[in-house]
Amino acid sequence: MVSKHKRIRAQFRTHMPQKLTAEIINAAIEGLESQKRRIDSQIDELRQLLSPASMEATPSGAVAPKRKISAAGRRRMAAAQQARWAKVRAQAELPSSPAASKPPRQERKLSAAGRKAISEATKKRWALKRAEAQKPRPTAAKAATAKKTTGKKQKKVPRAAEAVVTATAQ
Q: For residue range 25-65, what is the model confidence (pLDDT) as tens digits?
């Protein structure tokens, strides 16, 4: 018995290729261009139904000539745009409300006592680290026996007890 989920997935399964090749892309472009031509012709037919006299003056598919703006018109547009930006910048400089503008945060400074406490704590940590490095390590014989007994569970022995055992063995 096929589950409902599998039946739904089988209905909506898409068969898209994993990689788009140049051939597939070109075929898609051609198909879309043919659809565009068909839609353009249908739009032209509808426009002719609306006003046949106005459509006869311009052939279908022809683009209207681009409007040219005079130099004086461009200068007026540039001046108007500059005025708009000046107005925006002027409003940005003025604080909108006292609550919205916050004073700049002061830079936090470390006091001499704080710096000294940090330094002492760091020195203490490094002293402990060096002391750990100076402690004797287990010998090679112990390491070999530890490797042999990997199948067995080993009891965890505290380091202090381990140091006593190594001291008595020597």
A: 999 999 999 999 999 999 998 888 887 565 555 556 677 78
Residue 44 lies in a domain: yes
CB 101 within 8 A of CB 95: yes
The number of folded domains in the chain is 1
The model's pTM is: 0.23
Cβ atoms of residues 61 and 40 within 8 Å: yes
Q: Which of 30, 31, 58 is nearest to 44 (CA)?
A: 58
- Tell me the chain's radius of gyration from C-alpha atoms: 42
What is the rounded distance in angstroms from the CA atom of residue 136 to the CA atom of residue 141? 14
Residue 75 lies in a domain: no
- Yes or no: say if 55 and 44 are a contact pair by the CB < 8 Å rule: yes
